[in-house]
Amino acid sequence: MNISNDSMGGMDYTTYFTKQFLKDLAKMAELRDELAARQGALTAVDDANQLRTDAEAVKKAAEADAAALKESAAQTIADAKAKNEAANAKVVELNAREKDFSDAQIAYNKASDAAEKALASRISAVTVRETQIAARDAALAAAEADLKAKQDSLDARVKAFQAKVASLSA
Q: What is the pLDDT of residues 119-154, one digit of tens each?
């Protein structure tokens, strides 16, 4: 194998460096940039594939989080509905108790008013009776005084009669 390419003859380095080297250097720089661009394109595919894999993992994690949040929200909504129903039942019960209390209070007020009227009527009847009894007591006292006076008068007449009978019998 011939590595020095003897068939071409000797190389003139001065001519090469002055005329051809800059052209070859510019071509090599172009080839280097093209190779870098092609390598970048190859790594871009790998990077894109890695990004897809990462995105898929993030998507799956987000879907799992969303499912957990959805389940948690559904449970929270169910709990809130149950508490709301219990509160509504309590409100209905309290409204019924309030109505019953109001009805009882109205009935009590009516009964109390009737009792007060009956008591006032009784008090006025008792006052009338007391006045009548006082008048009767005064009349009885007067009648008793009159009776006592008449009794004393009768006793005096009986004594006078007995004295007369005794004087006649003696």
A: 999 999 999 999 999 999 999 999 999 999 999 999
Is 10 a residue whose pLDDT tops 60?
yes
Read off the pLDDT band of 165 (50, 70, 90).
Answer: confident
Q: Rounded to whole angstroms, how far apart are CA atoms 164 and 43?
A: 172
d(CA 99, CA 95): 6
d(CA 71, CA 149): 113
Quickly list H helices, the chain.
13-15, 21-169
Cα–Cα distance for residue pair 101/114, rounded to 1 Å: 20
pLDDT at 5 over 60: no
Distance CA 150, CA 158 (A): 12
- Sign of the dihedral defined by the CA atoms of residues 127, 131, 136, 141, in that order: positive
Per-residue pLDDT tens over the stretch 152-162: 999 999 999 88
Exposure pattern of 119-144 as b/e (b: 16+ CB <10 Å)?
eeeeeeeeeeeeeeeeeeeeeeeeee
Cα 11 to Cα 4: distance, rounded to the nearest angstrom: 10
CA 59 to chain centre: 40
